């Protein structure tokens, strides 16, 4: 009875449907983030801020960057076109589009993995900055262990995006938990024998488990059809590719920020990369939760409202969730900054993680936390720009963020060291938020004027 009442309530308005989706995605994502934090606690207990942890985070940075750039942009380019094709031509045509895009994307991701593997001896000394000797050898070894996750995670992201487009949020939100669970399992079972390699193997195994579950879910719902080898010629695939190119350029620039941050931190001495990574963990978990909940729940609804040209509804929904994000974000900043040191002590101070590490990491965490409201508000702007296919705006904002981040890191790390890098990141997200929301309001005004003009162009 309660489930039926909730279903009736959530379908009464778009805002309620979005809120209901946020509840589902939020609950599942909280579980995944809690398990992710548990994994980080286990890693800290085994390895502290040692060279092994420095090597792992640097080794993981390049594959994570590749995932974000090559595969992370595909759902944003695919879903709006997929929904339009399904509405215009039916489920079978949408399934063919998905199959074609999966073939093209899988080929591109696999080729990228091969190139990265061949270039590992060149990439790792550059990213690792002052790493040398055994530490650099370990970094290369870990890089090759986590690299298969690039291919696996890229395909998983596309499948999760399609499930979300069909409002099947739960499976896509739960499957990232496999990475944390299996990482912990491998650490507990094999860390004494394999060292930090156990973490890398567990991570890649978790990616494989995630893909298996998502593939099963898409297959049982018959959402994808067999692709064609000449799929790139399909007009709808061309539309996806047309949106994908600026997203990749913008993603390559924007997602280089963590890579740059860690590379610049590596110049500050042993343990600096680990301090930066641990200091970002709680904030990243919170942003991952908030960002996943907001983007996953709101993007399909934004896309449908754009397709129906409901501009006033879009404005109302954007304002409603802007207010909520601002209130929640500011409250989170106050709490984390106030209790940063006790939080770090509670989470990490055990085993090889010492009291001196707690003090250093707490400063980094407090300055990272400043970005929270800016990041969430920026996510709203990004999702709406995706929905109206204004991805070139994101490309230019990302380019601006890149230069702001490099300059900010250089200036503030000379004053505060590692915490200065965290503060520079927060300032980048503030400037990015201003640019994104300004662009959104301007574009919405243009679309609304076009919709009332005779024979106004379609979005």
Short account of what is shown:
The protein has 459 residues and is an all-alpha fold. It is built from 19 helices and no strands. The longest helix is centred in the N-terminal third of the chain and has 37 residues, at 91-127.
Describe this structure in words.
By secondary structure, this protein is an all-alpha fold. It has one domain (14-447). Helix content is 85%, strand content 0%. It has 19 helices and no strands. It has helices spanning 2-10, 14-47, 51-71, 74-89, 91-127, 133-146, 148-165, 169-174, 177-194, 197-220, 235-254, 256-265, 272-307, 311-338, 340-348, 355-369, 372-387, 391-416, 418-452. Helix 3 crosses helix 7 (148-165). The protein is globular, with a radius of gyration of 22 Å.
* Structural class label: mainly alpha
User: Which of globular, elongated, flat, extended, rod-shaped describes the shape?
Assistant: globular
* Average residue pLDDT: 81
Output the radius of gyration: 22 Å
Order of helix and strand elements from N to C terminus: HHHHHHHHHHHHHHHHHHH
Helix content: over 70%
Count of extended strands = 0
| N- to C-terminal distance | 41 Å
How would a textbook summarize the main sheet?
A: none
* Strand proportion: under 5%
Number of domains: 1
Instruction: List the uncertain runs.
Output: none
Number of helices: 19
Helix and strand topology:
Elements: H1 2-10, H2 14-47, H3 51-71, H4 74-89, H5 91-127, H6 133-146, H7 148-165, H8 169-174, H9 177-194, H10 197-220, H11 235-254, H12 256-265, H13 272-307, H14 311-338, H15 340-348, H16 355-369, H17 372-387, H18 391-416, H19 418-452
């Amino acid at each position: 009875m309660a489930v039926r009442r909730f279903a009736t309530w959530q379908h009464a308005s778009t805002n309620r449907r979005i809120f209901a989706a946020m509840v589902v995605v939020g609950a599942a994502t909280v579980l995944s983030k809690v398990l992710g934090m548990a994994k980080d606690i286990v890693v800290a207990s085994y390895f502290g801020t040692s060279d092994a942890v420095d090597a792992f985070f640097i080794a993981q940075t390049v594959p994570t960057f590749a995932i974000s750039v090559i595969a992370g942009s595909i759902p944003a380019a695919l879903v709006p076109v997929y929904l339009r094709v399904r509405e215009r031509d039916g489920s079978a045509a949408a399934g063919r589009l998905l199959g074609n895009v999966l073939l093209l994307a899988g080929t591109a991701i696999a080729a990228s993995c091969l190139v990265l593997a061949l270039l590992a001896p060149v990439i790792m000394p550059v990213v690792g900055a002052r790493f040398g000797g055994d530490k650099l050898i370990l970094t290369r070894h870990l890089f090759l262990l986590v690299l298969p996750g690039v291919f696996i995670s890229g395909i998983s992201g596309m499948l999760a995006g399609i499930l979300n487009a069909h409002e099947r949020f739960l499976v896509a939100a739960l499957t990232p938990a496999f990475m944390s669970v299996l990482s912990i399992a491998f650490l507990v079972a094999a860390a004494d024998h394999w060292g930090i390699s156990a973490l890398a193997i567990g991570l890649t195994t978790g990616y494989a488990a995630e893909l298996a579950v998502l593939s099963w879910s898409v297959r049982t719902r018959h959402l994808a059809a067999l692709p064609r080898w000449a799929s790139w010629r399909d007009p709808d695939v061309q539309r996806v590719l047309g949106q994908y190119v600026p997203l990749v350029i913008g993603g390559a620039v924007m997602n280089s920020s963590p890579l740059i941050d860690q590379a610049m931190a590596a110049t500050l001495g042993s343990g600096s990369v680990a301090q930066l990574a641990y200091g970002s963990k709680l904030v990243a978990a919170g942003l991952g939760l908030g960002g996943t909940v907001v983007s996953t729940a709101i993007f399909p609804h934004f896309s449908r409202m754009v397709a129906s040209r409901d501009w006033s509804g879009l404005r109302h929904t954007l304002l409603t969730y802007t207010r909520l994000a601002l209130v929640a974000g500011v409250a989170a900043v106050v709490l984390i900054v106030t209790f940063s040191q006790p939080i770090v002590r509670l989470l990490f101070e055990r085993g090889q993680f010492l009291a001196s590490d707690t003090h250093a990491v707490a400063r980094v965490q407090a300055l990272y936390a400043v970005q929270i409201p800016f990041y969430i508000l920026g996510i709203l702007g990004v999702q709406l720009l995706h929905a109206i296919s204004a991805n070139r705006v994101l490309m230019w904002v990302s380019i601006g963020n890149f230069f702001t981040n490099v300059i900010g890191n250089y200036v503030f790390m000379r004053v505060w060291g590692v915490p200065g890098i965290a503060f520079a990141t927060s300032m980048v997200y503030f400037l990015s938020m201003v640019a994104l929301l300004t662009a959104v309001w301007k574009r919405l005004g243009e679309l609304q004027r076009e919709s009332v003009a005779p024979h106004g162009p379609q979005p």
